Amino acid sequence: MPNVFENALRQLERANQVKKFPEDFLTLLHQPQREVRAHIPVRMDDGTLRVFEGYRVEYNNARGPYKGGIRFHPETDINEVKALAFWMTLKCAVANLPMGGGKGGITVDPKKLSKTELEKLARGWMRAFADILGPRKDVPAPDVNTTPEIMVWMVDEYAKITGDKSGAVITGKPLDKGGSEGRGPATGLGGFYVFDKLRAYYELPEKCAVVVHGFGNVGLNAAESFERAGHKIIGVADSRGAIRKIDGIKVAELIEHKNKTGSVVGFAGSESITHAENIISECDILIPAALENQITAQNASQIKAKFILELANGPITPEADDILFERGIPVVPDILANSGGVTVSTFEWEQNLKGEHWGEKEVLEKLKKIMETEAQNVFTKSQELKTDLRRAAFILALERIQTATEL
Ligand code: NAD
């Protein structure tokens, strides 16, 4: 597998080929401002002691406090967390939020832990990093395999350590614990708003056939948003496999099936296919919504989608980007397409700091406005510079970070 942090830096260099940024500024952006590792001991249910490796990377805070989720995954390592923290820096700038970029994680398969073990681990992560976190310093959130419940354990641990009960140190909390309305669907729905703004510029059918690769928080909410707007979901994958149903998958029924069986596989009336087949399915829109490096030089030439909306972080390698560009398949980059999540996270942080609670309508209207404005800004930049949407989004973000850095 390509090293994702190297991929991220190559994306930076490729953007710099289109618009030159000062050497010193690029030198600063080639590594995080701070990366911290911790060894987190957990007494397991059987009495044994296990030590897990945890991370927090604070990439850049020129525009505001570090912001970025915490990933629990067996393949998470420092390189992945660095890449994700770098992308968060750019993402917050693309969405024009008053935030910098960071990311955290633990190398663990949370599905193999009991609930008690998971809670001890989550609290252990917070104890390890509490001194560098804070509402005005570094504000984590959920990511792959971390849930609102895990955020509650963490925010509770932070309150015990510091006495700060504002909740503003962590976003993605449940509503009754200071969470924001609209945070659940924010990433998938925000991605839909971006697509809907840009679709007029591309020759896409009125009603699109959509394939979603990944059916967690992001994939599921994206599928619901596209279905609600009249598009048809024809393929879905999760970690256990993939399904295809050309006449359309009813998303609510698929959620019910997944809740019952633990997977999308075996959904009534669907055909079972492989992950690889799902990615190269015949469709109008492909939505990668799982992990990194799903579209590489190996499969990019076989992609049949007319348009790709990157809701996962880093699902396409730079080599695959070139192949897709040559083939005329537009890619809406992650740092724009999935920025709805951090946007509503930032609303949550703002509400916690002010002691307010905004209604769902207000939150979603604000989200839509930001997504549409920045989708337009990225598209306009791509036209001005005659480049793809990824380079355009990078350049827009880099200009904003550069200004903040110089100021
Ligand atoms: P999640 O844990 O809720 O869901 C991940 C999904 O991917 C699950 O359905 C899982 O079964 C599936 N999956 C895992 N490995 C797979 C594989 N090899 N092939 C196909 N499917 C696979 O995570 P999430 O929060 O939905 O995040 C998904 C992606 O979106 C990640 O890249 C994450 O960094 C990014 N993202 C998430 C948010 C957010 O608000 N949650 C915001 C921005 C970006």
What does the secondary structure layout of this molecule look like, with pairings?
Blueprint lengths: L3 H15 L4 H7 L4 E10 L5 E12 L5 E8 L4 H17 L6 E7 L7 H15 L8 E5 L5 H15 L23 H13 L10 E5 L3 H12 L3 E7 L2 E4 L6 H11 L9 E3 L1 H5 L5 E4 L18 E3 L8 H9 L4 E2 L1 H4 L1 H16 L5 H26 L3 H18 L1
Parallel strand pairs: 3-4, 3-5, 6-7, 6-10, 10-11, 11-12
Antiparallel strand pairs: 1-2, 2-4, 7-8, 8-9
Helix pairs in contact: 1-3, 1-14, 3-14, 4-5, 6-7, 6-12, 6-13, 12-13, 13-14
The structure holds nicotinamide-adenine-dinucleotide (NAD).
How would you summarize this macromolecular structure in one to three sentences?
The chain is of the alpha/beta class. It has 14 helices and twelve strands.
Care to describe what's here?
The structure is a single chain. By secondary structure, the protein is of the alpha/beta class. It folds into two domains: 138 residues, 3-Layer(aba) Sandwich (Rossmann fold); 152 residues, NAD(P)-binding Rossmann-like Domain (Rossmann fold, 3-Layer(aba) Sandwich). The protein is 45% helix and 17% strand. It has a seven-stranded mixed sheet with strand order 9-8-7-6-10-11-12. It has a five-stranded mixed sheet with strand order 1-2-4-3-5, with helices on both faces. Helix 1 packs parallel to helix 3, helix 4 packs across helix 5 and helix 6 crosses helix 13. The longest helix is centred in the last third of the chain and has 26 residues. The mean pLDDT is 96. Bound molecules: nicotinamide-adenine-dinucleotide. Nicotinamide-adenine-dinucleotide (NAD) binds next to helix 7 and strand 7.
